[in-house]
Design brief:
The protein has one helix at about 1-30; strands at about 40-50, 50-60, 65-70, 70-75, 75-80, 85, 90-100, 110-115, 120-125. It has about 130 residues and is of the alpha+beta class. Strands 1-2-7-5 form a 4-stranded antiparallel β-sheet, with no helix packed on it. A 3-stranded antiparallel β-sheet has the order 4-8-9, with no helix packed on it.
Length: about 130
């Protein structure tokens, strides 16, 4: 009786394993690139004035989909002369930014790049 159960169990187990091994590549392929953007950002050409900081954001989109940088936020400061920019897949752009600070300018800070539904990312700025 025990061998009969084992004989029935092996084909069922084999079928389950074969089905999962067939479906896993399809599941992985369907999920590839979902929810991830491949954008690299650098702060370049930094110029300090009395209460403001001017710099450029060098953005490179290594992904295949378009991404839009919709907003830039800075602690204790406000980004001026900033307009949303869209980068196509494989495109690089340089975006000028001017930040006015409410108080003393920090020696180093992290700006937050907002890509809307694609998420946010930090940008380290060292004047």
């Amino acid at each position: 009786m025990r061998n009969a159960k084992l004989i029935l169990f092996r084909p069922i187990l084999s079928l389950i394993i074969t089905t999962w091994l067939t479906l896993i590549p399809l599941i992985v392929k369907a999920h590839q690139g979902h929810g991830q953007i491949s954008v690299v950002a650098d702060a370049i050409n930094i110029k300090v004035t009395e209460q403001s900081l001017e710099f450029e954001i060098q953005l490179t989109n290594y992904g295949h989909n378009d991404v839009t940088l919709g907003n830039l936020t800075v602690p204790d400061g406000k980004a001026e002369q900033f307009t949303p920019e869209t980068l196509s897949g494989g495109e690089a752009k340089v975006i000028p930014v001017r930040v006015i600070f409410d108080g003393p300018m920090p020696g180093i800070f992290t700006a937050i790049l907002d890509f809307g539904e694609d998420g946010q990312g930090p940008l380290l700025v060292m004047p």
